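check this one:
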Amino acid sequence: MTSSGHHVEPALITIPTSDAAFREHVHTLWRPASPGEFEARLRRVFPRVVVRERTISGAPGWYIYRDGGWSSSLTGDWWDDPRLPRVAVSGDGWVREADATARGLLGIDDDDPSTHYFTDFVVPGTLDDAVSLFQIIGSGKVLDATILVRPTSGDIVALDVHARLVDDAIVAVFRLAGDVPAPPEAHVVGRP
Protein backbone atom coordinates (compact mmCIF):
# COMPACT_ATOMS: atom_id res chain seq x y z
CA MET A 1 0.00 0.00 0.00
CA THR A 2 1.14 3.47 -0.73
CA SER A 3 0.71 6.38 1.68
CA SER A 4 -2.47 7.29 -0.22
CA GLY A 5 -3.96 3.84 0.54
CA HIS A 6 -3.63 2.41 -2.98
CA HIS A 7 -2.37 -1.10 -3.48
CA VAL A 8 0.91 -1.21 -5.44
CA GLU A 9 1.27 -4.21 -7.72
CA PRO A 10 4.64 -5.86 -7.18
CA ALA A 11 7.01 -6.24 -10.09
CA LEU A 12 6.78 -9.90 -11.12
CA ILE A 13 10.26 -11.12 -12.05
CA THR A 14 10.09 -14.56 -13.64
CA ILE A 15 13.12 -16.80 -13.71
CA PRO A 16 14.27 -17.97 -16.18
CA THR A 17 13.75 -14.63 -17.86
CA SER A 18 14.01 -16.30 -21.28
CA ASP A 19 10.73 -18.23 -20.85
CA ALA A 20 8.23 -15.81 -22.40
CA ALA A 21 5.35 -18.28 -22.17
CA PHE A 22 5.84 -18.75 -18.41
CA ARG A 23 6.19 -14.99 -17.91
CA GLU A 24 2.96 -14.27 -19.81
CA HIS A 25 1.13 -17.01 -17.89
CA VAL A 26 2.28 -15.55 -14.55
CA HIS A 27 1.12 -12.06 -15.54
CA THR A 28 -2.20 -13.44 -16.80
CA LEU A 29 -2.92 -15.21 -13.50
CA TRP A 30 -1.66 -12.60 -11.05
CA ARG A 31 -4.21 -11.17 -8.66
CA PRO A 32 -3.48 -9.47 -5.32
CA ALA A 33 -2.36 -12.25 -3.00
CA SER A 34 0.50 -13.16 -0.74
CA PRO A 35 3.56 -14.76 -2.32
CA GLY A 36 2.56 -18.06 -0.67
CA GLU A 37 -0.98 -17.92 -2.03
CA PHE A 38 0.27 -17.13 -5.53
CA GLU A 39 2.86 -19.91 -5.31
CA ALA A 40 0.10 -22.37 -4.36
CA ARG A 41 -1.93 -21.29 -7.40
CA LEU A 42 1.02 -21.68 -9.76
CA ARG A 43 2.02 -25.06 -8.27
CA ARG A 44 -1.23 -26.60 -9.48
CA VAL A 45 0.40 -26.67 -12.94
CA PHE A 46 4.10 -25.91 -12.27
CA PRO A 47 5.02 -28.19 -9.33
CA ARG A 48 8.52 -26.78 -8.82
CA VAL A 49 7.62 -23.07 -8.78
CA VAL A 50 8.77 -20.93 -5.86
CA VAL A 51 7.62 -17.34 -5.24
CA ARG A 52 9.78 -15.09 -3.06
CA GLU A 53 9.29 -11.48 -2.13
CA ARG A 54 12.12 -9.20 -3.23
CA THR A 55 13.68 -7.76 -0.10
CA ILE A 56 15.93 -5.13 -1.62
CA SER A 57 14.94 -1.49 -1.39
CA GLY A 58 12.82 0.12 -4.08
CA ALA A 59 9.54 -0.88 -5.67
CA PRO A 60 7.91 -4.03 -4.33
CA GLY A 61 8.63 -7.16 -6.33
CA TRP A 62 8.42 -10.92 -6.36
CA TYR A 63 10.87 -13.40 -7.81
CA ILE A 64 8.98 -16.29 -9.41
CA TYR A 65 11.30 -19.23 -10.00
CA ARG A 66 9.71 -21.65 -12.48
CA ASP A 67 12.08 -24.45 -11.47
CA GLY A 68 12.32 -23.69 -7.73
CA GLY A 69 15.48 -21.63 -8.05
CA TRP A 70 17.95 -20.36 -10.57
CA SER A 71 19.10 -23.07 -12.95
CA SER A 72 21.58 -23.10 -15.78
CA SER A 73 20.21 -22.83 -19.28
CA LEU A 74 23.16 -24.89 -20.45
CA THR A 75 21.37 -28.24 -20.10
CA GLY A 76 21.08 -28.76 -23.85
CA ASP A 77 18.13 -29.23 -26.12
CA TRP A 78 16.93 -32.54 -24.63
CA TRP A 79 13.72 -32.30 -26.71
CA ASP A 80 15.68 -32.95 -29.92
CA ASP A 81 16.01 -36.63 -28.96
CA PRO A 82 13.77 -38.45 -31.49
CA ARG A 83 13.08 -41.25 -28.99
CA LEU A 84 11.11 -38.97 -26.66
CA PRO A 85 7.29 -38.88 -26.70
CA ARG A 86 5.79 -36.33 -29.10
CA VAL A 87 2.27 -35.00 -29.49
CA ALA A 88 0.86 -32.55 -32.04
CA VAL A 89 -2.32 -30.68 -31.11
CA SER A 90 -4.36 -28.60 -33.56
CA GLY A 91 -4.96 -24.92 -32.92
CA ASP A 92 -8.48 -25.74 -31.79
CA GLY A 93 -7.22 -28.24 -29.20
CA TRP A 94 -7.65 -31.70 -30.77
CA VAL A 95 -4.79 -34.18 -30.62
CA ARG A 96 -3.66 -34.69 -34.23
CA GLU A 97 -0.75 -37.02 -33.73
CA ALA A 98 0.85 -38.89 -30.86
CA ASP A 99 3.66 -41.37 -31.26
CA ALA A 100 3.44 -44.78 -29.59
CA THR A 101 5.44 -43.67 -26.53
CA ALA A 102 3.23 -40.61 -26.00
CA ARG A 103 0.07 -42.71 -26.43
CA GLY A 104 1.36 -45.16 -23.84
CA LEU A 105 2.31 -42.49 -21.32
CA LEU A 106 -0.95 -40.55 -21.75
CA GLY A 107 -3.11 -43.67 -21.77
CA ILE A 108 -4.43 -43.27 -25.30
CA ASP A 109 -5.59 -46.80 -26.12
CA ASP A 110 -5.87 -46.74 -29.88
CA ASP A 111 -3.83 -45.69 -32.86
CA ASP A 112 -6.19 -42.74 -33.49
CA PRO A 113 -5.41 -40.06 -30.89
CA SER A 114 -7.74 -37.57 -32.61
CA THR A 115 -10.60 -38.60 -30.31
CA HIS A 116 -8.83 -36.70 -27.50
CA TYR A 117 -8.92 -32.99 -26.69
CA PHE A 118 -5.96 -31.46 -24.85
CA THR A 119 -8.13 -30.87 -21.77
CA ASP A 120 -8.56 -34.66 -21.41
CA PHE A 121 -5.12 -34.57 -19.75
CA VAL A 122 -5.59 -31.56 -17.47
CA VAL A 123 -5.22 -31.97 -13.71
CA PRO A 124 -8.58 -31.35 -11.99
CA GLY A 125 -8.91 -27.75 -10.84
CA THR A 126 -6.48 -26.37 -13.43
CA LEU A 127 -8.66 -26.01 -16.53
CA ASP A 128 -8.42 -22.20 -16.69
CA ASP A 129 -4.65 -22.34 -16.24
CA ALA A 130 -4.29 -25.02 -18.94
CA VAL A 131 -6.44 -23.06 -21.40
CA SER A 132 -4.37 -19.93 -20.73
CA LEU A 133 -1.10 -21.79 -21.36
CA PHE A 134 -2.52 -23.38 -24.52
CA GLN A 135 -3.43 -19.94 -25.87
CA ILE A 136 -0.04 -18.50 -24.94
CA ILE A 137 1.82 -21.31 -26.74
CA GLY A 138 -0.61 -21.02 -29.65
CA SER A 139 0.34 -17.34 -29.96
CA GLY A 140 3.92 -18.40 -30.74
CA LYS A 141 5.63 -18.46 -27.36
CA VAL A 142 7.72 -21.52 -26.46
CA LEU A 143 7.19 -23.24 -23.11
CA ASP A 144 9.99 -25.20 -21.42
CA ALA A 145 8.83 -26.27 -18.00
CA THR A 146 7.93 -29.05 -15.66
CA ILE A 147 4.16 -29.38 -15.53
CA LEU A 148 1.58 -31.74 -14.10
CA VAL A 149 -0.74 -33.68 -16.41
CA ARG A 150 -3.34 -36.39 -15.84
CA PRO A 151 -3.26 -39.34 -18.24
CA THR A 152 -6.45 -41.34 -18.75
CA SER A 153 -5.30 -43.64 -15.90
CA GLY A 154 -6.17 -40.82 -13.47
CA ASP A 155 -2.65 -40.67 -11.97
CA ILE A 156 -1.00 -37.26 -12.03
CA VAL A 157 2.32 -37.29 -13.86
CA ALA A 158 5.09 -34.71 -13.66
CA LEU A 159 6.57 -34.07 -17.10
CA ASP A 160 9.35 -31.90 -18.43
CA VAL A 161 7.72 -30.35 -21.51
CA HIS A 162 9.00 -28.41 -24.49
CA ALA A 163 5.96 -27.07 -26.38
CA ARG A 164 5.96 -24.74 -29.35
CA LEU A 165 3.91 -23.71 -32.34
CA VAL A 166 4.96 -25.49 -35.54
CA ASP A 167 3.02 -24.34 -38.58
CA ASP A 168 -0.59 -24.53 -37.34
CA ALA A 169 -0.12 -27.07 -34.50
CA ILE A 170 1.33 -27.08 -31.02
CA VAL A 171 4.01 -29.74 -30.83
CA ALA A 172 5.00 -30.98 -27.38
CA VAL A 173 7.95 -33.20 -26.56
CA PHE A 174 8.11 -34.52 -23.03
CA ARG A 175 9.84 -36.81 -20.56
CA LEU A 176 9.10 -37.92 -17.02
CA ALA A 177 10.35 -35.38 -14.48
CA GLY A 178 12.10 -36.36 -11.30
CA ASP A 179 12.14 -34.94 -7.78
CA VAL A 180 8.70 -33.33 -8.01
CA PRO A 181 6.77 -32.86 -4.78
CA ALA A 182 3.31 -34.39 -4.94
CA PRO A 183 0.33 -32.15 -4.27
CA PRO A 184 -1.37 -33.34 -1.07
CA GLU A 185 -4.49 -34.48 -2.96
CA ALA A 186 -2.72 -36.39 -5.73
CA HIS A 187 -0.36 -39.24 -6.44
CA VAL A 188 2.44 -38.00 -8.72
CA VAL A 189 4.43 -40.38 -10.87
CA GLY A 190 7.90 -39.18 -11.89
CA ARG A 191 11.41 -40.28 -12.75
CA PRO A 192 13.26 -41.96 -9.83
